[in-house]
């Protein structure tokens, strides 16, 4: 069943502006020199844990995700660790079940790479916080596909526009973002 998301009346532009303001208010957009997870450095960094632990920003992200997901009744998946709060809140808001894609399989107990219930052939949309190279998202999709899911869509909060869209396309995955780096940094870049 496809449920009506909240704030359906908001335009994408309104939602984007509100989200940028919330990320900035949470102090999640940092400037300086930062090392990134797949190598290289950057003069800015989105500290996902600052916006994910801020109730206003977390609520806005989950509402925006829910609005984007109104066109599908697919199961949701979150990429550990950062996307776990995002998928949990979005799933609760939408009344949808979800799974978690670990970076590596658990080394004891169940030995699971995918946590939660996943049935063979089930359609899954992956939620992620940040896409830089896109490798983390691709790894999660591959693990979900190996576990039997059908996955062709990844939804991220921020696409840093550093090749993720192209890498995902090579794996037959469409990348959608709530914000691009261009949108997020427009104010700084206009100065
Ligand atoms: O697109 P990529 O080049 O893969 O980079 C982005 C990934 O890196 C960050 O996660 P991080 O490795 O910091 O892990 P965490 O969620 O466990 O903190 C971010 O949350 C993405 O998952
Ligand atoms: O590529 C990364 O590692 C990365 C970039 C970023 O802006 N934020 C983050 O949490 N990780």
Describe this structure in words.
This protein has 191 residues and is of the alpha/beta class. The protein has a single domain, classed as Rossmann fold (3-Layer(aba) Sandwich), CATH 3.40.50.2020. Helices cover 38% and strands 26% of the residues. It is built from eight helices and eight strands. It has helices at residues 12-25, 48-52, 55-68, 83-94, 135-146, 164-170, 181-184, 186-190; strands at 29-35, 41-46, 75-79, 98-101, 114-115, 123-131, 150-159, 174-180. The chain has a six-stranded mixed beta sheet with strand order 5-4-3-6-7-8, with helices on both faces. A two-stranded antiparallel ribbon has the order 1-2. Helix 1 (12-25) packs antiparallel against helix 3 (55-68). The chain is globular, with a radius of gyration of 16 Å. The termini are far apart. Residues 1-6 have low confidence and may be disordered. Residues 36-37, 45-46, 48, 130, 132, 160 line the site of orotic acid.
Distance between the termini: 46 Å
| Gross geometry | globular
Bound molecules: 1-O-pyrophosphono-5-O-phosphono-alpha-D-ribofuranose, orotic acid
Helix percentage: 25-40%
Could you report the average pLDDT, rounded to the nearest whole number? 94
CATH topology value: Rossmann fold
Radius of gyration: 16 Å
Structural class: alpha/beta
Subunit structure: Homodimer.
Pfam family, one: Pribosyltran
Family: Belongs to the purine/pyrimidine phosphoribosyltransferase family. PyrE subfamily.
Keywords: Glycosyltransferase, Magnesium, Pyrimidine biosynthesis, Transferase
